[in-house]
Amino acid sequence: MRMKSTTWRKNLYENHGLPDNYTDYTFLEELRKNIKPNNVTAKEAITLGASISIQLSVVILFVIVFVWLNNQWTTPNIIFMSSSILTMVGYFLYTVNMPDMSDRLSKDLQTVLIFVAFGYILSPVLKTLTDTVSTDTIYAMAIFMFFVHLIFSKYGSPQESLSDSLSITSSIFGSLMLASRLASPLHAFSLLTVAVQCFVLLPFLLSQLDHKVVIAISLAVGTTYLLVEISSILCIVFVGVTIFVHIVCPLWYIRWQKFKENIYGPWDEAVIS
Description:
Blueprint: E1 32-33, H1 42-70, H2 76-95, H3 101-127, H4 135-152, H5 162-179, H6 185-208, H7 212-227, H8 232-256, E2 263-264
Antiparallel strand pairs: 1-2
Helix pairs in contact: 1-6, 1-7, 1-8, 2-6, 3-6, 4-5, 5-6, 7-8
């Protein structure tokens, strides 16, 4: 007597006497590869690299300001006035096309006055906040915090996320560490003002501006010019890292797209369209 063969079907709720992990030749008929290609152009990849280069240049520029203040190469008044002028220019560019400008200007002016008042009053407290911590530890903590800032920055992504908050918090914490090692409360207040402008306000302006590549190149050239006066070795390292993240990494990314192989099939989660 000939026994009837059992036909396998893709059904989780019926038992045909076959093992749970059994499949036949029809299982891979629905296999699809690379159905959602990530066709990133060279321009898009280099633009994303420019966003990373901009963040790196901003961090290095902030550290240069700290070195200038720490070595008494400039005065806190000059730093505060120069950064304030640049902030007003940036604020104008950010709000030039916004409606209800008068209402927004009054609210933003109140915020600025509150920050200036509380920042100046609390600067003497900041100066004594880390007296018991060694300078080497302060520098190590600041470097680590700026690395965290660079890693978790959103780099042009419009969505607000936890990583964005972590990036801002770590940059401000690193700025506080450096400011506590300056000569006077006025020096510390000036550096904290620059920190807020660089790490809190500047990203809002950059999100509204196009031509990220031009901005990145301009900042990199300016940073290189200022950094060469401090250390030629650090200047060379900065130029090398900038070229690597701005040009080399995006070109590698585009080249490696042809090696990517994503598979799709009946094992994927169901998607309701």
